[in-house]
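#onboarding

Welcome to the new folks! Below is a worked example of what a typical request in this channel looks like: someone posts a single protein sequence, and someone else replies with the predicted structure as tokens. Don't worry about understanding the tokens yet, we'll cover that in week two.

Example request:
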Amino acid sequence: MSKALGYAALSSTSPLAPLAFERRALRADDVAIDILYCGVCHSDLHQARNEWGIAVYPLMPGHEIVGRVTAVGPAVTRYQVGDQVGVGCMVDSCRHCDACHADLEQYCLQGPTMTYATPDRVDGSNTMGGYSDKIVVAEHFVVRIPEALALASAAPILCAGITTYSPLKHYGVKAGHKVGILGMGGLGHMGIKFAKAMGAEVTVFTRSQSKVPEAHKQGADHVIVSTDAAQMAAAAEHFDYLLDTIPVQHDLNPYLQTLKFDGVHILVGLIEPIEPAVHAGHLVIKRRVLAGSLIGGIAETQEVLDFCAEHRITCDIEMLDIQQINEAFERMHAGDVKYRFVIDMATLKG
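Example response:
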């Protein structure tokens, strides 16, 4: 065991505050990591406030973790002390089901062990996330951060990046395809960059005219203001794919009508019942698909990091001290961040 320090919520109504705790001793296949940076995901806010009803307290968020290896277990072969590495949304899975064998650990049939607020598969302890100074993770769930990537801005790729890259890759987005990105937050701005790098023609849907210049700055070829009925009507049956990153309730029906026949609307931001109801005719009559996608497996997470290094893709971030985390949560809730907060974990010792 080793002493660790982080910021955690003790209840759904308490602010995050310093918490001393213990990380486990190294198992044979474990990697110990000093955390340098940790991204702040909207899921962290949902969990800390128990908005999904699955929180376990004390709850220490953080699943966009970047740091350096400080020790390895005797069975570790891929990493050594000093390597720059990352840990994303998962730290374990059953490793033997069909999904795990297919490198799709996020769909583990027994359920993946998430980076925080999930029972450890070995000792049953509550996993604690990256709003802390160190972490211990099985080698299989550690990825290498390419030297070409700046460590701080690489952190959100481990969630925001893989969440948008995985479905675009899965559905085969390529040159000639027309892709619509719904929403332009932490996920959406990464979706623009990935779809463009894959060769697609990219259109951003936004509710606000004021976001049009920013969408073009992020690389969008076109922008549709979704509150403008004429613009929406002009986009009818235009897109091959829609990547829907909007995390709150919104009417899918107008967007579905912008898809070609065989078009695919992919949900990555909403994980609750859809309201208002989807009109089945929008799917049936044009053989459209309404799909969902959850992060990506470990191999694919390494792939997206390498893809970002190759194509010089990075996440737009705002750095903060850990002491500002509660303020950051409020700003994130209000949509006041472009586009991802990243904590400088050196400030934990300040």
